[in-house]
Amino acid sequence: MFITLEGPEGSGKSSQIPALAQYLEAQGYRVLCTREPGGTSIGDQIRAVLTSMDNPELLPRTEILLFLAARAQLVAQVIRPALREGKVVLCDRYGDSTLAYQGYGHGLDLNSLRAMLNFATEGLKPDLTLLMDLDIKTGLARKKSIDEWNRLDAYEVSFHERVRAGYLQLAEEEPERWQRVDASKPKDEVQTMLRQIVLQRLKDKI
Ligand code: TYD
Fold this sequence. Notes:
With 206 residues, the chain is α/β, with parallel strands linked by helices. The protein has eight helices and five strands.
């Protein structure tokens, strides 16, 4: 089963995934965790270009092609093989980040983005997407406080507001795939919610 975690900046995805993976392993599932952009050697090199503060001239179109290049590599090299082996794949961001950030955030055409996503992933879609939803000011403040500030976070607040609204819209369009989690809640509570949702979905799938 292919599970993705999505959400605006500072929603805590990255810190929740290891505990969620550990829990699922304790329940007897084999789990693979990965993240975007990155997750492969080529992807990590692309990630460095995308997040560097030295690249302020990077255009939205260039940005999307780099995200998609990293994703194509990750899907073929890591995600599909793990799914074939029957693993649960937990991926920190995936195609919906492209729709939310490049589509809703930067205003690139959503239909073109969907076609490009389809090309890059050869049509691989998540079975379940967890939306870690959080208001923008709290999220950005969290990120600044832990010194994880990168080029993409430095876009203006209105950009991040559009991203969040985009996520909520995407979740509304495909309610059977998305589950919204209130990421403003304390860390432990969020973890408990994530475990419940994922375990239920895994049981339903059998
Ligand atoms: P990262 O430091 O991993 O942020 P986070 O911890 O919030 O996931 O940086 C990834 C950034 O890339 C983040 O700002 C979202 C952005 N992004 C896109 O704009 N489009 C995409 O397709 C992906 C995968 C990420």
